[in-house]
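SEVERITY: medium
COMPONENT: batch folding queue
REPORTER: lab tech (J.R.)

DESCRIPTION
The queue accepted two submissions in a row. Attaching both inputs and their returned structure tokens so the on-call engineer can compare them side by side.

ATTACHMENT 1
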Amino acid sequence: MAAGKKAKNMGKSVKGKTKEATGKAVGNERLEAKGRAEQAVADAKQAGAKAKDAFRH
């Protein structure tokens, strides 16, 4: 996986975790759900990129 894409996906995952934690802390279910969704998207992109790399080598 390209280092730039990996870093971008990791950043999105961290951003999602932050939103989820903030949502839990203030009792905002919508923000918490947004955070979980962002994490899922980032994880899916990262998994797809890893699968791509596995077939390249």
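ATTACHMENT 2
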Amino acid sequence: MSGEQKMKAKGERAKGKAKEVVGRMTDDERLEAEGRAEQAKGDAREAKEKAKDVFKH
């Protein structure tokens, strides 16, 4: 997995987790949902890059 994409995925997941926690603390369901969606996006990016690595080798 390329370093840039790996960092992007980790960043998305961390940002999403922060949004989810803040949303939960402030009872903001929209922010909490946004956070979960961002985490899922980061997970998907990481899975895509891992799949690319498997087919490269």
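NOTES FROM REPORTER
The chain has two helices and no strands.
No errors were logged for either attachment.
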